[in-house]
Amino acid sequence: MAEVKAVLKKMKRHKAPGLSGLVAEIIQATGDIGTQWILDLCNGIVKEGSIPENWKSSVVLPIYKGKGDPMECGSYREIKLSEHAMKVVERIFEHRIRQQIEIDDVQFGFAGKGTTDAIFMARQMQENFIVKGKKLSSGFGIWRKLLIGCQEK
């Protein structure tokens, strides 16, 4: 139950609810009853191997960006209102998974190491090879050729 309480405590407040109207503040306000409900929900998802049916739907709202023609679709961005209970469960599962795996130093796109870091490192390596007059082969070019070849067939 401590795990659920910790996740609930970290949830952002005053966020729009999903279809059910249930927000994290309500779950937290119910104390041990809400915490136990989330825990039972997590265990049920693991046992059944599927998420509740109503979590497969969400509300998508267009939000005007504040610039451009309001009559053009491109002047809007979309926000998706998801179930708060689902977000809590997702964070619990993410926490459990991260405890079981180790993210290697060469993996990017995770907290602390964004994809821009990987691109920067690749460009740095490329420039070092050019300065030294050495050839640098890239796996990206090979994959690109393979993908284009597959599309043409």
Question: Can you walk me through this structure?
Answer:
By secondary structure, the protein is mainly α. It contains six helices and two strands; from the N terminus they run αααββααα. Helix content is 53%, strand content 8%. It has helices spanning 2-10, 24-29, 32-48, 84-100, 115-132, 139-152; strands at residues 59-64, 76-81. It has a two-stranded antiparallel sheet. The termini are far apart. It has two domains: 2-100, no CATH class; 115-152, no CATH class.
Compute the number of strand runs: 2
Measured by DSSP, the beta-strand proportion falls in 5-15%
Secondary structure category: mainly alpha
| Order of SSEs | HHHEEHHH
Q: How many structural domains are formed by the residues?
A: 2
Ends apart, CA distance between termini: 55 Å
Mean pLDDT over the full residue set: 83
Tally of helical segments: 6
Using the CA coordinates, give the radius of gyration.
23 Å
Percent of residues in helices: 40-55%
Largest sheet: 2 strands, antiparallel
Which outline best applies?
flat
Major beta sheet, strand line-up = 1-2
Oligomerization category of the chains in this entry:
single chain
* Poorly predicted tracts of residues: none
